[in-house]
Design a protein that fits this description.
Layout: H1 6-39, H2 43-68, H3 73-97, H4 121-129, H5 137-163, H6 168-197, H7 223-239, H8 249-259, H9 277-285, H10 288-319, H11 323-351, H12 356-373, E1 427-429, E2 434-435, E3 445-446, E4 456-458, E5 466-467, E6 474-475, E7 479-481, H13 491-506, H14 509-518, H15 525-541, H16 543-554, E8 556-562, E9 565-572, H17 574-603
Antiparallel strand pairs: 1-2, 1-7, 3-4, 4-7, 5-6, 8-9
């Protein structure tokens, strides 16, 4: 009985929310780029992983929240931890049942041989098998369905379980701690995921000479899912031991009933029959402060969940950094921004003893500020000059490319080389332009360096010779392996404004939750949270990653082609990506602010 108190319940729930957050929002987002490269996925397809999670969470969440209102909430929470743990282990399964990853361009020299023809072997493989690794997309989707089915229980039944077992005055602090740790979980996932991504995907095997700066690099994305899967199974054990009601439950119940507002007269026994579902739903939908707060949270989630899913990928593309560094940077912003915002929201509510009305006004003010700060996505860097993508093949210097030539990697300088279009092996020319492969640069010779990353190519017909300023000699047509470095100092300003945007977004989390809990009667709390998360997930979290993924795919200027099908993207138009994400974020942030205003207006 020593552990039978709210503090220990909070402790084990905190472990639950940290580990699940690490896996769901941290490791999944960190793994996106590696998954797309390893399993040849488009961003829209990787976005569907989040959507599968949300569909399962919405459907299972609304059903469990309805029945759990009269059931053993602690038991529901423990079972959900087991389901999440199994889902994490299933997500890592494709790594163990596939062959080792062989990056394109690491077999053979990739040089230009005049009058060569493209081998038909790859075409025969396509005719017989298609692209075999892409089928694992469905394994990832199934794993996400399991994780989604389990995790939503925390935010409906679990939050109600905590709220009803603590005093009303302490509830906001408990909720703030859980919600804050929910933000720290992804942050830890970002940071630890960055460490894992510095390891080769088939660790402890070697990386074939490929460096983390190479677009073909795939990190050990699977390690985090193993750690979290096992962790959730362990956390479920103490959760099974908690009783249905903790000590002082009845005393706290009377205190909450005195603080409850609303005209709903739904009987306390609702939840015993599915026939009660329509009437209970109607009571909540007609509760205007409640429904407008939920709609505002839905609009916010549409933007936030989409951004969270692809934030490391966005940073990696915009600022030409590695997947590991992008993960570290994302974590550094998530910890103080989201976590600090949630803590600040909970502290301000307790310090000013905010009523539901005050909390509604608070949400509106910070909703407006978050609209302004979304302008962070105007800050970015230009795309790395790439022959055939944004500068003409054979150009002496960087110059604009005609729209009709975008994606055409062949010119007079490499037309007789017979270069394969699906063997991405980037090299950086002496002219500062990146080429798809040594063959596409027309390179006919290579040094005998023992290490792949130090190889230098020469006699490259697509790289014009240049005359130095101080002599009459010429610089040989040479190139080194890898993408050309980019000079851009916009990352710090971007991160500063992004931090403000996250702070203004997450500071509303605790006040919004308290508005929901204080605008419905005792008997409806679990179901009210369940209905909230149903709408947030189906209308916000579900389409958000799909829409952001579509915008990222739309800004792709150089696709990987496998068996005649576009798979992963090698190069993006950074400016177009930034404008599309900005338009998306600003539109739905403004809509959410309008809903917060209406919730405040009708609360008065």
């Amino acid at each position: 009985q020593t552990l039978n108190n709210p503090k220990w319940l909070l402790a084990f729930t905190s472990l639950y929310v940290i580990i699940s957050g690490m896996m769901i929002s941290g490791f999944t987002a960190v793994a996106i780029t590696s998954l797309e490269t390893r399993f040849e996925l488009r961003s829209t397809e990787s976005g569907s992983l989040y959507s599968a999670y949300e569909v399962a969470a919405a459907i299972i969440g609304i059903v469990t929240s309805f029945y759990a209102g009269q059931g053993h909430k602690g038991r529901y929470l423990a079972v959900s931890a087991v389901i999440i743990g199994i889902g994490g282990l299933v997500f890592a399964l494709p790594h163990w049942i596939t062959d080792n990853y062989v990056a394109e361009g690491t077999v053979g020299s990739g040089l230009c041989y005049h009058n060569a023809t493209i081998s038909q072997n790859s075409a025969n493989v396509c005719n017989n098998l298609g692209s075999p690794v892409r089928v694992f997309l469905y394994v990832f989707i199934f794993a996400q369905v399991l994780v989604g089915a389990g995790n939503n229980v925390l935010w409906t039944t679990g939050m109600a379980y905590i709220d009803e077992n603590v005093s009303p005055t302490s509830s906001s602090v408990y909720v703030a701690i859980v919600v804050t740790l929910a933000a720290m979980g992804p942050a830890i996932g970002f940071l630890l995921g960055g460490v894992f991504l510095n390891l080769w995907v088939d660790w402890p095997s070697n990386s074939q000479g490929i460096l983390p700066t190479d677009p073909r690099w795939v990190g050990a994305w699977w390690l985090g899912f193993i750690v979290c899967g096992v962790g959730m199974l362990v956390v479920s054990i103490p959760l099974f031991a908690f009783p249905r009601n903790l000590p002082n439950f009845q005393k706290y119940k009377l205190q909450r009933q005195k603080a409850t507002i609303g005209k709903s007269k739904v009987d306390k026994e609702y939840g015993n029959s599915i026939a009660d579902f329509p009437k209970a739903s109607k009571e909540l939908i007609l509760n205007r402060p409640y429904i407008f707060t939920v709609l505002a949270a839905t609009s916010e989630a549409l933007v936030t969940n989409g951004f969270a899913a692809f934030l490391p990928k966005f940073i990696q593309a915009q600022f030409s950094t590695t997947a590991s560094n992008a993960s570290f940077i994302s974590g550094i912003i998530v910890v103080p921004g989201a976590g600090g915002g949630m803590i600040l929201g909970g502290v301000l509510m307790k310090y000013f003893r905010m009523s539901g009305l005050s909390a509604s006004k608070f949400n509106f003010v910070f909703g407006f500020l978050s609209c302004v700060s979304v302008l962070a996505f105007l800050i970015g860097c230009d795309t790395v000059p790439f022959a055939g993508a944004n500068t003409p093949v054979g150009a002496l210097t960087i110059q604009p490319i005609a729209q009709a030539q975008v994606g055409n990697l062949t010119g007079q300088c490499n037309g007789n080389c017979g270069c394969p279009q699906n063997q991405f092996d980037p090299i950086c020319g002496i002219n500062g332009i990146t080429y798809f492969s040594p063959c596409h640069a027309g390179c006919q010779a290579i040094n005998n360096s023992a290490t792949l990353e130090r190889q230098v190519f020469s006699n490259c017909t697509c790289i014009p010779s240049q005359t130095t300023a101080n002599s009459s000699g010429t610089i040989q047509r040479t190139a080194r392996r890898g993408v050309c470095a980019q000079t851009c100092n916009n990352m710090i300003p971007f991160l500063a404004v992004l931090f403000i945007q996250m702070l203004c977004t997450y500071v509303k989390s605790v006040p919004a939750t308290q508005v929901v809990l204080r605008t419905v009667p005792e008997s409806q709390r679990s179901f009210a949270l369940g209905l909230q998360w149903l709408l947030v997930r189906l209308l916000g979290n579900l389409p958000g990653p799909l829409l952001i993924g579509l915008m990222i795919d739309t800004s792709c200027v150089l696709w990987n082609i496998e068996c005649g099908e576009r798979t992963s993207c090698w190069l993006y138009d950074n400016r177009q990506m930034g404008y599309l994400v900005l338009a998306f974020g600003l539109s739905f942030k403004a809509l959410g602010t309008l809903f917060f205003f209406l919730a405040w207006y009708f609360y008065r």
